[in-house]
Amino acid sequence: MRAGAPRSLPWDSGNNRGPRPGTPANGLISRERRGRSRGAAAAAALVLAAGCGGSPAPAPEAAPYLDPGFVETGEYRLHYALTLARDLPAAIAGSYGIVQRRNLAVLTVALTPRDPRAGAAIEAPAVEAAAVSLTGLRRELALSRLPEPGGATWVATVDVRHRVPVTIEIRARATPGGPALRARLTREFRLD
User: Fold this and answer.
1) Where are the beta strands (DSSP E) in 2-103?
2) Where is 148: in which H helix or E strand?
3) What are phi and psi of 150, to 5 degrees?
4) Structure pTM?
5) Which CATH superfamily does the domain covering 70-187 fall into?
6) Which of 7, 23, 93, 103 could form a disulfide bond with 98, CB atoms 3.0-4.6 angstroms apart?
7) pLDDT (tens digit, 9 = 90+) per residue, 78-122?
8) Are 142 and 159 in contact (CB under 8 A)?
9) How far apart are CA 158 and CA 156, in angstroms?
10) Beta carbons of 125 and 153 less than 8 angstroms apart
């Protein structure tokens, strides 16, 4: 460079730059490098395509899970239901001694023979139930046995909160040496 001559800047050379580092002296790009460039371009195109398009309409709601309300094991069937106390007719709630409140649910459990004509006896039945919170905290429910025509029904109350799921686990045996019946149901209530 001459004294007093302007200093050369990278953009001054235009297309006359020297080869880039890693480029052969003849200026050709290797096949390996071209393949990597094409792979990167293809990956970028796929990422852009995945982010675009699609339907602007909201996703359809999932089909509701329809709990059958019973489980069967051997010759026996365990029926269960969890209902808001305010949804029960006042006469029924009163007959069970339940004071209807906005945030109270009623659990009913009945143990019956799978086929009533077969005559499977229910001797010394044992029924237990627990409420399980989202954090896994278990609280045993105080079940009251109510004699009913054709069998017994167990009833317990459960405090519920607005849109907070509650899981109920039920364990029962129709006879002391008989098979265990287990049920697990999760419900969420809207208390508005």
Assistant:
1) 70-73, 76-84
2) strand 144-148
3) 90, 5
4) 0.63
5) Domain of unknown function DUF4426 (2.60.40.3340)
6) 93
7) 999 999 999 999 998 888 888 888 999 999 999 888 887 776 677
8) no
9) 7
10) no
Strand order, beta sheet including 166-173: 138-140, 126-132, 166-173, 180-187
pLDDT of residue 146: 84
> Which pLDDT band, with edges at 50, 70 and 90, does 179 fall under?
confident
Distance, CA of 128 to CA of 180 (rounded, Å): 11
Which of 12-21, 41-50, 120-129, 155-164 shows the lowest per-residue confidence on average (mean pLDDT)? 12-21
What the block records as the tokens of 175 is: 């006879």
Structure tokens at 119: 């005559």
User: What letter does residue 119 receive in the DSSP assignment?
Assistant: T
As a whole number of angstroms, the distance between CA 103 and CA 189 comes to 9
Q: Residue 153: which H helix or E strand, with range? A: strand 151-159
pLDDT of residue 107: 95
Place of tokens 């007959």: 95
Which residue reads 């905290």 in tokens?
137
Cβ neighbors of 185 (< 8 A, separation 6 or more) are 67, 80, 82, 167, 168, 170
